[in-house]
Specification:
The chain has 386 residues and is of the alpha/beta class. It contains 15 helices and 13 strands. Bound molecules: adenosine-5'-diphosphate and ligand VHF. The ligand N[C@@H](CCC(=O)OP(=O)(O)O)C(=O)O binds next to helix 2, helix 4 and strand 4.
Length: 386
């Protein structure tokens, strides 16, 4: 893995970053819902071509399918109904990719080797299964080797609320973890993160540099959004925290700012820089961290919490007092401490009915149970402490 020192200055981190994930939100792409804004998209495509030509690998996470579909189908607003949203995403996604491919041709030098785009639509399930997650990684790395621009979106046509990733800020962070990106650039309709929502607070001040995971970020990002976008600023600052787990720093900047991407590459202090000063997780634990939906919950006593948190041990049934959910072996479950706080997550080794009958039992008492695989409820390699 390439060495990414979290203590380097912002300027150095920007100018040295070789692999970027760039995320562009719906409010920008569709000019606040008025259909795909070809002129602006052309501006970003031109800059992405220049980044590629200067040796930077770029992965684009592009929203906009639902908004573009709504406009194409002649609807006046984003539908609340799931089926209509899925239909809009299907129509809009093809319009979106067609626009990118056309602009890549129009904006590039005719005598250069063409940069094509490759559409990658991901669902939550693709990231839940370790095998599919690794397949997605190798497919994306192959596209980069071939000088293709991968354009990623959630597969909204087949995702539904219960199992979707929710917003593309989260998706972009998961992709940053998947590919060990150096930099995640989230382009939005504001200059960055302010100390209050600038839409309702005209005097709000821009934060220029902050550490990922800083508690005040969650407080000030609130939950408001443009109305066109999905996640709002809260999703972006949470995405930065998630990205930091692979040592990826994040810049949240205004996509309407002239040559924003090239100026970031050249080290200019644009937007809000969120330093990845969090302990870096190994690849398997990053995949675990990217798992968004748990199938159940285990309630632990104080001794088990200490064994996991301080001693780095595996979870034994003796310290588990209760369970929730009908999970199966291999599913992701959350671990709660006696106060009800979730402090860890992991892949459980046993089905819920086996866990139920082993609650509070010492290992020796269950040694002969044929359904008790591996002797531990969650192995420490499959456990992530938050
Ligand atoms: N502290 C904050 N700083 C900046 N923007 C904020 C803040 N809190 C809430 N917001 C809102 O978040 C919006 C951007 O999120 P969103 O609408 O989801 O955009 P996108 O479509 O780019 O993902 C901004 O337009 C702004 O109103
Ligand atoms: N996948 C959806 C976008 C989801 C989303 O996060 O949108 P945004 O908050 O504008 O980045 C789409 O393409 O419409």
């Amino acid at each position: 893995m390439r060495n990414k020192s979290p203590d380097k200055s912002r300027n150095l981190l920007q100018t040295k970053a070789q692999r970027w994930v760039i995320k562009i939100g719906s409010s920008l792409l569709t000019d606040e819902g008025r259909g795909l804004d070809r002129k602006s998209i052309g501006g970003w495509v031109r800059q992405i071509i220049a980044l590629r030509r200067s040796g930077i690998e770029v992965i684009l996470v592009s929203s906009g399918s639902v908004s573009a579909g709504v406009q194409r189908l002649g609807w006046s607003q984003r539908p609340a109904n799931l089926k209509e949203r899925q239909a809009a995403a299907s129509v809009g996604q093809s319009a979106l990719i067609h626009t990118y491919e056309k602009l890549l041709r129009e904006c590039d030098e005719p005598n250069e080797m063409p940069i094509h785009c490759g559409q990658v639509l991901l669902t939550h399930d693709d990231l839940r299964s370790r095998r599919r997650y690794l397949n997605a990684r190798s497919a994306l790395l192959t596209l980069l080797e071939m000088n293709v621009l991968p354009i990623i979106n959630e597969n909204d046509t087949v995702s539904y609320n219960a199992i979707n990733l929710g917003d593309n800020d989260t998706l972009a962070a998961v992709v940053s973890n998947l590919l060990d990106a150096d930099l995640l650039v989230i382009l939005t309709d504001q200059d960055g993160v302010f100390n209050a929502d600038p839409r309702s607070n005209p005097d709000a001040q821009l934060l220029t540099e902050v550490n990922a995971g800083a508690a005040m970020l969650e407080r000030i990002a609130g939950s408001g959004g443009s109305g066109v976008g999905t996640g709002g600023m809260l999703a972006k600052v949470r995405a930065a925290t998630r990205a930091a787990r692979s040592g990826t720093s994040t810049i949240i900047a205004n996509g309407r700012c002239d040559h924003v991407l090239l100026r970031i590459r050249d080290g200019e202090a644009l937007g809000t820089f969120i330093h990845a000063r969090l302990p870096k997780l190994d690849a398997r634990k990053r995949w675990l961290a990217g798992q968004l939906r748990a199938r159940g919950t285990l309630h632990l006593d104080a001794g088990a919490v200490q064994a996991l948190k301080q001693d780095g041990g595996s979870l034994l049934p003796v310290g588990v007092t209760a369970l929730e959910g009908n999970f199966h072996r291999g599913d992701l479950v959350l671990c709660k401490d006696p106060d009800g706080n979730v402090f860890a997550r992991g892949l459980v080794n046993w089905d819920a009915n086996v866990v139920q009958r082993c609650l509070g039992k010492k290992s020796a008492e269950i040694a002969d149970d044929p359904d008790v695989a591996e002797g531990v409820m969650i192995h420490r390699d499959n456990l992530l402490i938050h």
